[in-house]
Write a structure and sequence with these properties.
Helix content of chain B: 25-40%
Distance between the termini of chain A: 10 Å
Largest sheet of chain B: 6 strands, mixed
CATH class of chain A: Mainly Alpha
Number of strands of chain B: 10
CATH superfamily of the largest domain in chain B: P-loop containing nucleotide triphosphate hydrolases
Number of strands of chain A: 6
Order of helices and strands of chain A: EEEHHHHHEHHHHEHHHHE
CATH topology of the largest domain in chain B: Rossmann fold
Structural class of chain A: mainly alpha
Strand order of the largest sheet of chain B: 6-7-8-3-9-10
Number of helices of chain B: 12
Strand order of the largest sheet of chain A: 1-6
CATH architecture of the largest domain in chain B: 3-Layer(aba) Sandwich
Strand content of chain A: 5-15%
Oligomer: heterodimer
Radius of gyration of chain B: 18 Å
Structural class of chain B: alpha/beta
Largest sheet of chain A: 2 strands, antiparallel
Shape of chain B: globular
CATH architecture of chain A: Orthogonal Bundle
Number of helices of chain A: 13
Shape of chain A: globular
Order of helices and strands of chain B: EEEHEEHEHHHHHHEHEHEEHH
Chain lengths: ~350, ~250
Amino acid sequence: MSDGRDRKERIDRGIKVRSDGLYAVSSLREMLYLSGPRILLIAGLLLLPLLLDPFPYWRRVINILCVYALLAIAFDFLANCVGLVCLGGSMFIGLGGYFAAVFNVHLHLPVYLSIPAAALAGAVVSTLLILPCLSLRGVYFAIVTLMYPLLFTRVIEAFDLLGGSNGITGLDSFPGSYLENYSILLILLAVLFGLRRVLNADIGLVMHAVKDNDQSVRASGIDVVRIKALAVFIASFIGCLGGAYLAHVYMWAGLSLFALDFSIIPIAAVTIGGGGVLFGAVVGCLILVPLSEFLRFFGTFRIVLYCTVLTAFIVFKSEGLMPYCTRKYQQLERWADA
Amino acid sequence: MSILTVEGLDKTFGGLKALSGVSFSVKKGEILGVIGPNGSGKTTLINCITGFVRPDEGKVLFKGGDITRWRPHKIARIGVARTFQVMRPFYSLPAYKNLIIPLWSPRARKEGGWRGGGKHGDRDTVAIDILEEIGFERDSRVPYKLASTLPTGYLKRLELARCLALRPEVIFCDEVFSGLSASEVASMLPLIEKLKMGGITLVLIEHRLRELFKVADRVMALQFGEKIAEGHYKDVIGDARVKEAYLGIEEI
């Protein structure tokens, strides 16, 4: 500070000609600069099962990691792009899982048909169930989505529906463990880039506007409830995909699919990875899920460590990892004369 | 011919009578000013007409058709737009992206023809065109700035621009001049005249009487939710009840 260089200067780097979101790409180097992080993510995810080939246990962790990533993307999309705080991750997993079980065990649909069919059915049911509270603002949406999974658990137990507390067993598994890995990885990548495309289109802008100010959207001649319903449908479809997949991996659909973990961990992941950018949700899961596996060695003490890490992130990097890294990647910081 | 008619509008909030038996009509292409002291029911009147608040009694007719208690987006879709007194832009979007939302609505896509609809890039161009029309300098960076970084003058214009993007027939303006400097208001007045020339019917709620009277064809005064006078502004401010309720004895 004493040498008079007391101002931090930020300089855009990488692309020579750009203005806000527009780039004039003029060389291979610049194209690589832009697509580098994306290629890294795609290649990294796709290589993960091969790299972990000697560790079958960790290859199973990839599967659950991807399911959590799907839920985190759905949460991030609803919370930061549409403005709905959804605590219903476990509802999506449960509905997707049970639908997959019914389609596969009772209707004998093959794995690759029962997963999309279950996701679609689950999304329709979730949307219809959530529809009544969509016209309300405030905490109602969060409470209702939190309540439904609890309701389902009790109803299934009490009336001994769908196998009662034993659940439905005998689902087909995937033909091989690599197929198991790559199915969910491809689903995750498709969801990630597909959803980003939706958000960059005009409909994505409208959803963003609903978050900013729903009254103005109404005054602009757009039915807010319809937009919210569409968003809930998309998010629950993504969540149910994960649920249906999980049921096939476990070859079983039961009450534990409605576990609160599926609602909470995605939120923690989005907090760590950074909200508003869908990649942040994936990055958050890439950190949290393996961490929670590592911490298993510590027994019950792991919750303490887990919470410490989470709190540290919230206190020291509250914006989230992804926005932080994006800034570091795009801008050069240096001390300059004030 | 009257484009919008309001008959006996009543609205009570708890024990408070916000509107009681307000009736008026607006002719196509005219500018109607609505004045009245704070709390006289001006904003509630707009809210009732545009569907944001449900009136207890009364009727709202648009071109002869009953639109009472329609939901806000339906009313916007038939061409009745409104601005908000407390500005409600989409703060996290750039100014021109604010207009994509009304341009995306079914009405703009139908009425705007090739201009309002079509491809993504097209809508951006239309948005910039509308902003230029409303006083955003095209060649400056202002249309591309985030709405949260714009000063009040531009935000008021942005509210109007959002209405215009709907290709409306009637616009209700809730205090578009408030919070603006005298020179800013002076630059808004020709804009209002231009909209009128374009065949748009305007209802202006205002506290800035001097400026309002320059553009308004007719003025209506409210007090305690009741209409107390209507007509040419000279007659209205000459009216004893208006003087007593609102203007005092001061000369304008």
